[in-house]
Amino acid sequence: MLSTKIEETRKEFLKDLDSVKNISDLEKFRIKYLSRNGIIPALFDEFKSVPKEEKPATGKALNLLRNEITEKYNRLKEELAADKKAGEFKIDLTLPGKKYQVGSKHILTQTLDEIKAIFKGMGFSVFEGPELESDYYNFEALNFPPDHPARDMQDTYFISDEFLLRTHTSPVQIRLMEKMQPPVRAIMPGRVYRNEAISARSYCMFHQVEGLYVDTDVTFA
User: Fold this and answer.
1) In the chain, N or C: fewer CB atoms in 10 Å?
2) Burial 59-84 (b: 16+ CB within 10 A, else e)
3) CATH number reported for the structural domain that contains residue 201 in this entry
4) For the whole model, what pTM was predicted?
5) Residue range of the domain that includes 155
6) What is the pLDDT of residues 85-130, one digit of tens each?
7) How far apart are CA 178 and CA 198, in angstroms?
């Protein structure tokens, strides 16, 4: 009977499904059950000769079998495809590690680090301040008169009437003295800006380091 064949085919396909380990095995599985000359189309051909009173139950069982086989096939196909894709990017932990080239510090950074280390060794602290500075800290608090040439547009990068790119690191000294009481021992490294012609020997931005030492009995020695 066809119903018996359907049940036997179901047991057989479940057994065959366990033996599918790769794409090649899966293709053999598809050809055996779902291809034009496979078992499922053959069972549907045989279904045509089933007595009329048995057709509803037999047809339902046959459709369930086909759907189950198709669903199992599609799911296994997706899993094997995902495993194959993952295998393409699999990392072999037995391979030696890659050596990455690490760049060196810029010569300016090296020089600044060396200067900082020297002054820190003598007990100095390192302070930094904003590169966008106010006219007060950059000029007025340092006693630059209103008609001083440094205030001219051809020498200084003014952002507005009140703010500019600092022309020296001295504003950091002003800010430091506003907040700290002597003794003070500090250096102020940083970038400064001058509105000058750019050439092989000159640039509009350069680095400056200056120090502040306020205490009693202080000498250069």
Assistant:
1) C
2) eebbeebbeebeebbeebbeebeeee
3) 3.30.930.10
4) 0.51
5) 107-214
6) 665 656 777 888 888 888 889 999 999 999 999 999 999 999 999 9
7) 36
Structure tokens at 75: 């799911």
DSSP 122: T
Structure tokens at 124: 């100095």
Check whether residue 207 and residue 114 sit in a common domain: yes
Q: How many separate domains does the chain show?
A: 2
- Examine residue 220 and state whether it is found in any structural domain, yes or no: no
Instruction: Summarize pLDDT for 130-150 with one digit per residue, the tens.
Output: 999 999 999 999 888 888 877
Q: Residues 133, 196: one domain?
A: yes
Q: Is 168 helix (H, G, I), strand (E, B) or coil?
A: coil
In whole angstroms, give the CA distance from residue 164 to residue 204.
14
Concatenated DSSP letters of 4-67: HHHHHHHHHHHHHHHT--SHHHHHHHHHHHTSTTSHHHHHHHHHTTS-GGGHHHHHHHHHHHHH
Query: Do residues 38 and 134 share a domain?
Result: no
Nearest Cα neighbor of 125 from 186, 54, 70, 199 is: 186
Query: Does residue 94 form part of some domain?
Result: no
Whether residue 189 contacts residue 207, with contact meaning beta carbons closer than 8 Å, is answered with: yes
In a domain, 205, yes or no: yes
Nearest to 40 by CA among 72, 18, 76: 72
8 Å CB contact between 69 and 35: no
Question: Are 67 and 147 in a shared domain?
Answer: no
Same domain for 65 and 133, yes or no, is no
The answer for residues whose C-beta is within 8 angstroms of residue 207's C-beta and 6 or more apart is 108, 112, 189, 190, 191, 192
